[in-house]
Amino acid sequence: MDPILHDKIINEVLHHTQTDPHKRASGLSDFILGAQDGLVNVLGVVLGIAAATNDARIVLVAGLATTFAESISMGAVAYTTTLADADLYQSEREREYRHILEAPNLEIKEIRDIYASKGFKGELLDHIVNTITANQDVWVAVMMAEEHNLAPVDRKTAVRAAIVVGISAILGSLVPLFPFMVWSVSLSMWLSVLVTALVLFGIGAYKAKVTVGKPMKSGIEMAVIGTVSALAGYLVGFILKVPPLP
What is the pTM of this model? Predict the structure, then answer.
């Protein structure tokens, strides 16, 4: 092989596999879901309780109760949602097999319409349709992806999703609680908002960095949306403020 061509191939392989590799499916979305939910919800709770009572002990008890109840709930939701997605895919897949057997002409027309809409026509379109419909498994897989926009879901990932969401919810929830363990309630309220906003910014920026988007813009958006949502809890606590005991 020509040395120059060899070097070019090596450089392209390195770029493809290391410099700019394809992102594999990961628990990123599950982590963001749990962490963001824990951050925002617990911040809202502790701000509301702090504004209403000005009692650090009550704030911590309420915050910790919310943390663990929410982490279990979020993990359960992630688990059942994943199973529901898997069941939906399986039911639609079985339905497509039945349609191929009971209404093959209509299903062939649907394949033809799908690829005709992509710009294929004439003999090439006929060849594509004949190739796809020659194998039922391929036929069904194409219909699931192109007609229903559904991807297969591994039921085994339900447990992983539940664990990632649950743990990330706990970690996120502890962030706004930490200041109340160290400082006064009045100072902790401001620190809790600040630290939570910074963490939300970091999560948003990281998400944009590993997927698509501008890290700065994504970070600011997540920080603003999360903080504003949590401040609703403060308003409720401020309005319903508990008078001090005599």
Answer: 0.79
